[in-house]
Every structure is written in structure tokens, then in C-alpha cells.
Amino acid sequence: MGVEKTFVMIKPDGIQREFVGEIISRLERKGLKLVAMKMIMLDRALAERHYTEHLGKYFYERLIDFITSGPVIVSVWEGLDAIRLVRRMVGATSPEEAEMGSIRGDYVICTTFNLVHASDSLETAGREIGIFFKDDELFDYSLTITKFLGQ
Hints:
The chain is of the alpha+beta class.
């Protein structure tokens, strides 16, 4: 367990349902550090590159159609054990399995429209961050609180 970077995407339904502030606030309040963020429209090629592990699955075309249907917000967050922490905060993909208190447990009613994507491993985070961000788009800075706490 160390300091990690993880990738988070607020999906079209997260923007349309006006959960952007709620999702970002939860990550910030947990103590994660935002190191990159932008709003973009995914074209099919970029969506396919991002969701390559789902190629051939029954839901693939629906997933690609959905993720390209409106803008998304892509971001990178940093913190201690960030990948596991963010996945827990996001909750299980299926709303029936997502714990109350998680983003999906509190707000999602349908697996297709599940508001947010988060990397599931260090390898995936590295791949996803590399798809959406150049190295010079990732910011390295110290949180004021960590300066005072000597961390």
C-alpha cells in the first residue's frame, strides 16, 4: 500500500444527472488529490481503446454507444492506496450489489447508466491515464495540509 494514481471518468449520465460536483466532492473529502481533469467527447475509436477488455461481450456495442453519447469528465486522482479506495467509494457495477454509501449504491438504478468508471488495478490505471492524458497534463504539487503534518 503506497501512494498511487488512479483514473476516474464521470460518464455522460453523471454529467446529465448533475452529479459532477457530488462525485468530485466525495473524492476530495476522502483526502485524494486531483492531479488532472478535463471534459471531452469520446469518439468511437477512443471509446474502443478504453474499453478494449470488453470487446466481444454482449454489452459491448451498447457500452460504446452510451459512452460516446455525450461529454465525459476524465480525471486522475492520487493518494494512499487510491485505486482500492476509489473503487470502494464508487461501488459495485451492479446497483443491486453496490453498498449504500457508495456513489453507485446511493444514486444508480441501472447497470448501464452507472455514473462513473474507476480503474481496477495499477496496470489498468496506468493504461487508462496514458490514453487520456499526456505526462505534462499531470500536476505534481503538495497539499497544504501535508506540509504542516510533515508528510
